[in-house]
Sequence to fold (328 residues):
Amino acid sequence: MALLDRYQRPITYLRVSVTDRCNLRCVYCMPAQGIRLRRHEEMLRYEEIERVVRTAVGMGIRFVRLTGGEPLARKGLTDLVAMLRAIPGLEELTMTTNGTLLAPHACALAEAGLDRVNISLDTLRPERFRRITRRGELKEVLTGIEAAEEAGLGPIKLNMVIVRGLNDDEVAELARLTLEHPWHVRFIEPMPLGSHVLWEEDRYVPASEVQQRIEAVLGPLSPAQGPRGNGPARSFQLQDGLGTVGLITPWSQHFCPSCNRLRLTADGRLRPCLLSEVEVDLRGPMRDGAREAELQRLIQRAVELKPIGHYLEERGGPQGRAMSEIGG
Fold:
């Protein structure tokens, strides 16, 4: 069964935010004081998440990614992984995490059916890591990466958001990891994310500059076949590289025409586009007793509302929710 939007794009990928809570306060994502958290009763229960995913898979979704906030900040996540893994037709189940809470859970997550993880890693310098995250420890992330690798949650992808004057001088150091490990390091252009975080255009670093900086230190990047996944990265490889270097360009070369995803917020709204305020409420109808046909209709409605592009240049970023509430 194919799930197509009005522009004939196949929609195969669902990002599921399981919580709006996070143990970090990254400067490009959240204000220092955090955000107003939703009440417990506002959040989707695991059984409700499973129902949405099961219905969506029956309509054509094939790939699901668990996000947050920080997904491991929610108790019992391994139980949800096992519930989702049991859904027929789900081809891949992955998770994006900041890595600080991963080490104690990596084996259990793999045993429950999680396929792989993406881990945020914006710097290799402990003091800078604390400055970026406002409260984190780099060693916890590095231990989490090691635990994920030992548990078989690979291929491991590392995500670096590049901000000029904050961490842009480390792009070659991060890219060098692909010469030493079979990891896939992706460099992400920052975006204006609404009123919750400071956005200054002079902090923006285009991916073309990132590529030039890497090549000036480590040599040419050749186009490469990236790891299996459903993200928008353009993949490259250094000579003798064990992994790949990915460039994700939501600003300079946006990938909207091939976007294949929907996003389910932790409080049960289905968003057709990360950078749009449009949402379709699933929680309310489900708790009011909506039958399967009605849930399918609501998911189809979200697909039909998916825009052709994000219109960042004209509208700026979303104002209603912080990125940590949407799941990226």
Notes: The mean pLDDT is 90. The CA atoms of residues 176 and 294 lie 50 Å apart. The chain is about 30% helix and 15% strand.
